[in-house]
From TrEMBL:
Protein's GO biological process: glucan catabolic process
Protein name, UniProt field: beta-glucosidase
Family annotation (InterPro entries): Cellulose_Degrad_GH3 (IPR051915), Fn3-like (IPR026891), GH (IPR017853), Glyco_hydro_3_AS (IPR019800), Glyco_hydro_3_C (IPR002772), Glyco_hydro_3_C_sf (IPR036881), Glyco_hydro_3_N (IPR001764), Glyco_hydro_3_N_sf (IPR036962)
Family: Belongs to the glycosyl hydrolase 3 family.
This protein's UniProt keywords: Glycosidase, Hydrolase, Signal
Keyword Hydrolase: yes
Species per Swiss-Prot/TrEMBL record: Draconibacterium aestuarii
Domain Fibronectin type III-like: 670-739
Source domain of life: Bacteria
Amino acid sequence: MKHLFGLLTIGVVLGLAGCLNQNEHNPWMNDKEILDLIQQMTLEEKIGQMQQINGFGGEIPEHLKQDVIDGKIGSILNEVNVKTINEIQRIALEESRLGIPVIIGRDVIHGFKTVFPIPLGQAATWNPEVVKAGARVAAKEAWSSGVNWTFAPMIDISRDARWGRIAESCGEDPYLTSVMGVAMVEGFQGDDLSADGSILACAKHFAGYGAAEGGRDYNTTLIPEGELRNIYLKSFQAVEEAGAGSFMSGFNDLNGVPASGNEFLLRKVLRNEWNFEGFVVSDWASITEMITHGYVADEKNAAEKAIKAGVDMEMATTSYKTYLQELIDEGRIDEELLDEAVYRILKIKFDLGLFNNPYVKEEDQNQFALPEYLETAKEAAIQSMVLLKNEKSILPLTNEVGKVALIGPMANQKYEQLGTWIFDGDSDLSITPLEALQLELGDNKVLFAEGLSYTRSKDKAGFAQAVTAAKQADVVVMCLGEESILSGEAHCRASLDLPGAQNELIEEVAKAGKPIVLVVMAGRPLAIGAVSKHVDAVLYSFHPGTMGGPALAELLLGVSNPSGKLPVTFPKSAGQIPIYYNHKNTGRPVDKASWTCIDDIPLNTFQTSLGNTSHYLDLGFDPLYPFGFGLSYTTFEYKDLKIETPKVKLDDDVIASVTLENTGNFIGEEVVQLYVRDLVGSVTRPVKELKAFQRVQLKPGESKKITFKINTSELAFFNNEMKEVTEPGEFHLWIGGSSNADLQASFIIE
Ligand code: NOJ
């Protein structure tokens, strides 16, 4: 996707006139076929390409047919009827003047009919191959419905569990999010965008959207440029380099300028610095919402700001359609800005092969939930579940497990286990934990009681039945959490507690005195610290998708071994937010030895006697669970950390190794994580940064030397001059099984 030379800056006069082979000021606009086509287009047809309208479901209204014939529609979102789509494409190709196809977009976020774990769960696999395979399945199913373009991956860095859209994200870390985002792009787009089963990816929401104030969706984001570049833009740059063909501008205002009118983001960074050649679509109405933001007075100004900033296509609203012509006539914008946008859009349509064949053949249509797709979804779900606690190795349940009481409002909810953003998800395909356990163990061994009919319920009428089931069983599995609607877009929560009377349900069931395994199906980290003391094991499954039940059953029964790791820090309570592992040290980091809990502070304590360090008196300094954490049924020991290159020069590789041994009784997979700290920087550096990881499988008793190679360029950061630099000096390096890894060594960059 790279072009050869420097790019336009706003105000440079672009020009197609008289130059059919290459655009004078945009050398990357050099496809003769596209330039020829643009030369033939009327202004109205150009503006048409920049308009995305919402779908209509089934029958195509006459006025829309006419709009397609007139070349007034470049894209349609939310249309998934393959026959309708084929017909629209036929009209566009055969009946419109220039035969330009339409591009069909859809939110295919974590699966189409076959639903995969929510992206946050997928990130917990720390397995890009599994994530890529999931995106491939989603692409194939969506493609077979006529969809050409998904609005994914969502790669907003999310440090706030209150924010509902954390469910759609890959969590808090720029490196992990980059790896996962790239895997998704590769899965969606395949090796060849025009191949059957490939669809266009869209990196969203550009940019900073995850930093919404207070975790309230759509809220203001204030991110200093250095932080923006070091944390929030990394994943976007990674997927741009991986060839993501489109970007979506966010709803948020970033440092006072809405993302959809933000020249810094869309023109300076995305186009001029990264040389992005795909196109930018606005988020739904995010151009006209700049009026509500108080950034522009009216739609005409909104259209002007957005086109100048670099939004090529307008989603849902019609400010471009209504005002671009006028803005050109008044000399406020140059028509060449439109040519650039149209070029970008047409280029992608050519790349997708839509000009040649936009149709889905009869035999390829509606290919859903094939056995191999379901298997891929099951594997993703298995690897996405994170074992957080397993006292006395209660898990896995042995073959001789007697009766299992399966309790809780999420144990048999085909729809709710799918999570947010499943517009096309088929909940009939879902296999619930109840169904899967009954299948594995036989009906008579599974005693089912909901306890609560849904997670927010406060009606305790079902408690007695749940307690009875627990008393009759040998072990209790409780499936609790949040319904799908409690996370996702606009669905933010101020509290991270289990909703409804679920805490009380655990407390009541615990009185039966049976071992309890808590399974949490949720769209965000929940503050389960207080209740987890009543249970023996915790398996955090996020919303696991279609195959959540079988995946869970395999893990509970030891057919598979948990290997997921947290992609985000779990706070003890919402009051600790923001809390993330790659924080700064501050001048007064917490002194763990001298921290005094609020309950232990004597009366009349002298003000400074507790020390003055950065922590909460009531919640301390640690999160509930750290980033990267996750247990296995086996145990792993890390030893012999060695830096083979204790002194390196700039641009050299740092080589570090560790020996990992499986010291337990099960075959298992461990995600070996490497973190570094740059001890002194011209800008203060985080206390730890994830730089690499590897998934390693070991048999009991087996050990293996794991080696990492990191180039010093990967240790670069943006300094206060906004230059990306690796600064010489001393670095600490850790390798271990979570961000709390304690095996540490040092190296120096000379
Ligand atoms: C709004 C959401 O923010 C975005 O993520 C989504 O792709 C669009 N709506 C289209 O549905």
